[in-house]
Amino acid sequence: MKKINTKLIKLIKYYTLINHNLIFDKNAINRYDKTLNETNSDKISNLDTLKKSILNLKNCNLKKKAKNLVFSDGNPSSKVMIVGEGPGANEDIEGLPFVGRAGQLLDKMLQAINLDRTKVYITNVVNYRPPENRKPSEEEILRYLPFLVKHIEIIKPKILVLLGSTALNSILGSEKVISKARGIWVTKQIGSWKTNVIASFHPAYLMRQPDQKKHSWVDLKMIKKKLEDLNIKIDN
Ligand code: URA
Predict the structure, then answer these.
(1) Superfamily (CATH) of domain 4-229
(2) Ligand 1: distance of its center to the CA of 132 in Å?
(3) Mutation test of ligand 1: which of 71, 83, 85 has the most ligand atoms closer than 8 Å to its C-beta?
(4) Where are the domains of the chain?
(5) Would you say the pTM of this structure is higher than 0.90?
(6) Which of 92, 120, 202, 207 to mutate for ligand 1's pocket (most ligand atoms within 8 Å of CB)?
(7) Ligand 1 atom at minimal distance to the Cα of residue 163
(8) Strand order in the sheet with 186-190
(9) DSSP classification of residue 119
(10) Which residues are paired to 193 by β-bridges?
(11) At what angle do helices 40-55 and 138-155 cross, to 10 degrees?
(12) Tens of pLDDT, residues 13-45
């Protein structure tokens, strides 16, 4: 019984965060698009507020053991947002995501479709390094999910790229398996923002399984095509 309750509570938390717009409301929908009036400096200030709220997080084991907050890198105006799993040792030292070996491979992957860090925005599911580079636990993922959702609401990407199973499961649901869910476009409501989501293999996995790079290349080409289809100019 206790197990079912815990599961149910987690599920409710998850849907509250991800799908709250599906809840019926007797009030009229406000169709006035607030984003039209939003300036880049609003975005920067919202990002700053978000960063401060993560820095103020209390009783977090990840935070206690980490050296630095790893918030984001790249261009906040970009229409492409990339979400990884969590910082590793190098990221923890530098306070920036994807600066180690996996990051170097990510740079090459981006380059293959004429993108780079100035043209995309990068963050992680958790913003502090899990000790010994372990995967973040379910509890840690749920704790950071509201921040990730808020991050997405602020950046408002037209394309959201989930790298690896942790990012996939945190946004699209825990039942998904990366080998099956990768390379498929999904339209997803995340908090107040609806966007096109695609999952792909994490660069660290590709370093261990280089024969899987062929699938990653298919996914990258899908992202390039989507940018063209949506008429997104990548020189922001
Ligand atoms: N792996 C990730 O998922 N994120 C990083 O920032 C670095 C490595």
Answers:
(1) Uracil-DNA glycosylase-like domain (3.40.470.10)
(2) 13
(3) 85
(4) 4-229
(5) no
(6) 202
(7) 3
(8) 73-74, 121-124, 80-84, 159-163, 193-200, 186-190
(9) T
(10) 190
(11) 160
(12) 665 565 444 445 455 555 555 555 678 889 999
